Amino acid sequence: MIELNGYHLNLFDFYQITQGKTKVKLGKDAIVKITNSRSSIQNLIASKKIAYGINTGFGKLSEKTISTEDLQTLQVNLLKSHACGVGPHLDIPTVRGIMALRSNALAKGYSGIRLELVEKIIEFLNNDLIPAVPEKGSLGASGDLAPLSHMALPLLGLGEVYYQGKLMPAEEALKLAGIQPLSHLEAKEGLSLINGTQVMTAIGAMVLYDAINLAKMADIAGGVSLEALRGIIDAFDERIHFVRGQLGQQLSAANIRRLTNNSKLITHQGEIRVQDAYSLRCMAQVHGATKDALEYAMKIVELEMNAATDNPLILNNDEIISGGNFHGQPLALVFDFLKIAIAELASISERRIERLVNPTLNEGLPPFLAAHPGLNSGFMIVQYVAASLVSENKILAHPAVVDSIPSSANQEDHVSMGSISALTARQILKNTQKVLAMELMTACQAVDFRNPDGLGAGSKTAYQTVRKYLPYLKEDEIMYPLINRATELVENNTIVDEVEKAIGQLL
Questions:
Q1: Nearest CA-CA partner of 131 in 194, 50, 209
Q2: Which residues contact 68 (CB under 8 A, 6 or more apart)?
Q3: Which of 150, 418, 450, 485 pairs as cysteine with 332 (C-beta 3.0–4.6 A)?
Q4: Are 335 and 421 in contact (CB under 8 A)?
Q5: In angstroms, how far is CA 189 from the centroid of its own chain?
Q6: Which of 62, 309, 53, 317 is nearest to 185 (CA)?
Q7: Which residues are catalytic?
């Protein structure tokens, strides 16, 4: 059971929630803060004061005052009108993450909602009632308004949910689950449900979690390629990386040394050649820079996981102040950075694939790693596909944050596009997982022309794990099922897990 209090949620706990591996509950302090915050809203209504989103319209319509008898209707209308998302639904783990993050933000006690509303979100989450949330429609400012409206509607028995793996109307699912919907929303509650950055945060956090493991995978695939190409280990000497001082670089170099430890395939400076191409020699520098970027991204993401991001906020002494914490700029910037960092893992990986299959570069290996080249094409088109994905990544890596488009009659005249940053980061991640999978299967084919017994301790484990699922190709076979199988090994973290069992945790 993970306790939500608005202050201590981290990436690891978040991921456990997304996978349905743990339930959540509100902390005792959060309950007190939520209750006190709600009292401030009630006091404001009683005083007849005007405050944005409580007794006014929204966006450009904030100049319209709403009567007390219409305040409940105002909040429900907000959800109905803003549920304009389009495109495929976000996957269930991501939506679990959105629900957890919104609950955690509300738990801070700055939103003015009733306790039972937060408890209802948690009840849905713990009972696997997962709202159907379209992935497109957010500008990343004023919060993720459209997708969060889709998350919120089922709390009232409206919209659609996934229940027991099936998509169905929320009303039907609630009956099956034996759960009562909320009968209504009170003042500000609709706005508090949707005025936040939780959609972009959840998508980006999922990408970040997988990217941390993918950076380890890049070291593993690169290590096997280094051995298959009789690469020079001297470039990974601890002293070289220490004198530069970049932490990620030092960590990747240490991983390569451990992966190739006791290798009979690896070479030393001057033994075959004086130095390797950059895709081998500069592996630690490139992979390490990505690790440094991931570390920075984690700092920003974990801050946002525990942030109060709606508007207005209820502060001390019944002060209700409008601001702009819903603006996704901090996340949009870091997710664009994340995109570039992940894309570079694919870029250098594809260059190593090219060296493995190119007979002028692969140190005596058969052309395209075909046992009978000419009759067989071997891994020729594997490199084509990797190159295609790398080129797609280059387009997707263009920063979304530099674009902005005014909305709400120019009241909301600068937006972050943070959700687009997060979604494109997710696609780059998927592409990069495939490229690294292709590198590893290609490198293992190359090793079979050398001597698999000569591999280093970690590389041998990676090779043996691949060979449990993928054969050495003596002749051409239909390749896409093999690529899909290799990709699954990367996506499921099978390779990393097995290597870490053998040589200890990678850095």
A1: 194
A2: 45, 55
A3: 418
A4: yes
A5: 28
A6: 53
A7: 52
CB 455 within 8 A of CB 227: yes
pTM: 0.95
> What letter would DSSP give residue 150?
H
Averaged over 387-407, what is the pLDDT?
A: 91
In whole angstroms, what is the distance from residue 94 CA to residue 423 CA?
11
Burial letters 235-273, b for 16+ CB under 10 A, else e? bbeeeebeeeebebbbbbbbbbbbbbeebebbbeeeeee
Report phi then psi at 309, rounded to 5: -120, 10
Sign of the CA dihedral with 48 first, then 52, 57, and 61 last:
positive
Reading the block at residue 247, the tokens are 């932490």
First vs last C-alpha separation in the chain: 28
- Strand ranges in 266-417 using DSSP code E only, listed in sequence order: 313-314, 320-321
How far is residue 106's CA from residue 32's CA, in Å, rounded to a whole number?
12
Contact 122, 49 (CB under 8 A): no
**Which residue has 């702009």 as its token pair?**
324
**What's the one-letter identity of residue 158?**
L
CATH 1.20.200.10 fits 204-503, yes or no: yes
Secondary-structure class of domain 2-196 per CATH: mainly alpha
d(CA 189, CA 53): 9
Residue given tokens 């102040």 in the structure block: 321
Read off the tokens for 101: 């993050």
Residue identified by tokens 């713990």 is 126
Give the whole-angstrom CA distance, residue 78 versus residue 404. 24
Banded pLDDT at 55 (limits 50, 70, 90):
confident
CA pair distance 405, 199, nearest whole angstrom: 19
The pLDDT tens digits of the residues spanning 209-226 come to 999 999 999 999 999 999
Q: What is the pLDDT of residues 250-272, one digit of tens each?
A: 999 999 999 999 999 999 999 99
pLDDT at 413 over 90: no
Residue 58's pLDDT band, with cuts at 50, 70 and 90, is confident
